[in-house]
Amino acid sequence: MGCVTTSDHPGEPQDSPFGVEPLPRDEAPQFVLPLVARIERAAPPARTDALETAARAVLVLLSDERSLGDGEWARAVRDWQDARIRKVVRRARGAEWRRAGALPGITVTGKSAEVRVFPPVPLDGWPRDLARLQVSGTDLDDPEPPVDADLSAPVLWMSPEVGMSAGKAMAQAGHGAQLAWWELSDTDRAAWRDAGFPLAVRTAAPGRWSHLTTSGLPVVRDAGFTEIAPGSCTVVADHPALR
């Protein structure tokens, strides 16, 4: 049970931007990746679909040509990845969602969820139309239990031991997707991107979780800024190419 304490396995390097120990990264200017989930009162998305859509949104931004090389977002993405990797999910509806959609970013749509991801911004420099959005209120439910994950495709396994709001869990799923992306070869990245970033997010059974956290797959340890204790293992990124 619980979380392994070693950082010698792939995906959890000694200078992990998700860890809790002081690092040179902490001396760099800090940035955050904003994600906004559309949550209308009359038709909120299913929780699992929202988590999966947020994870795909992170991957879509990381692979977008504007985030690479000399792209218009590339400097912001590099600065963000050179510091602690922070993601914050806010919610919007109606006019708030339309204003968020007018800002530079990418909207990713799931079965019932819509998530817009924006290029990283300074921790204290959010655009006004995003800063005014609420972080709380992203408690979502699944109308029906999710079907079993297809293990031939990537699965982001959530901890059965850590309770999180939907917004927090969406950010953690994004962390897991990002760790998998970093660990993949260029060929495997291209294949995942060309397939549309298929993935599933599921909560692991306690017995599976104990195995996953010691399997050598990328593990997210939360820095403890919000909701949960520092060092908590929250997600294991189980991509077939990393097994």
Question: What's a concise summary of this model?
Answer:
The protein is of the alpha+beta class. The protein contains 7 helices and 9 strands. The strands form 2 sheets. Strands 1, 2, 3, 4 and 5 form a 5-stranded mixed β-sheet that branches. Strands 7-6-9-8 form a 4-stranded mixed β-sheet.
Describe this structure in words.
The structure is a single chain. 30% of the residues lie in helices and 17% in strands. It has helices at residues 47-63, 74-82, 94-101, 128-131, 166-183, 186-194, 206-212, and strands spanning 31-38, 86-92, 106-109, 114-117, 121-122, 155-158, 200-203, 219-221, 233-238. The protein starts with 30 loop residues before the first strand and ends in a 5-residue tail after the last strand. A hairpin with a 4-residue loop joins β3 (106-109) and β4. The strands form two sheets. Strands 1, 2, 3, 4 and 5 form a five-stranded mixed sheet that branches. It has one domain.
